């Protein structure tokens, strides 16, 4: 928190020390150039906050492809139980968003490819790679990369952002 008087980069209002959001317009004392730009668009702040909420609710979803692949390859019932539990929670919290997302072919394709890559990696791991060896390390690394890529594509890519944005527009009409 600033311990000095500061003037807002957006509206020039002079704020008292100990306040980290402008009393006049709500912009943070530490706003970046990008923040200021967004702040200037009406409703952008609310929209970003709401979209962040949608994304937080959907985050557990990224564990599903890996868990389902693990269950199919290893057949452990406790993994199936976790999958079921996760599915119930996710469907309960995100049914409207999921219904929206499934209308986009690229979302389905991404999810299928994501799952399939993990499945193939796990299968190779089970059939051909000894548990303690370089091979196992590479497979683990590849799985992490596949997960990171799937996550970034669904959340941070231009398409991903448009997906949330379009959902926000329909949900807040
Ligand atoms: Zn201000």
From TrEMBL:
InterPro entries tied to this protein:
Znf_RanBP2, Znf_RanBP2_sf
Domain (RanBP2-type): residue spans on this chain: 6-25
User: What UniProt keywords are attached to this protein's entry?
Assistant: Membrane, Metal-binding, Transmembrane, Transmembrane helix, Zinc, Zinc-finger
Q: Which domain of life is it from?
A: Bacteria
PROSITE patterns on file: ZF_RANBP2_1 (PS01358)
* SUPFAM superfamilies associated with the record: Ran binding protein zinc finger-like (SSF90209)
Q: Which GO terms describe its molecular function?
A: zinc ion binding
Q: Where are the transmembrane segments?
A: 57-73, 79-99, 106-124, 136-155
Q: What is this protein called?
A: RanBP2-type domain-containing protein
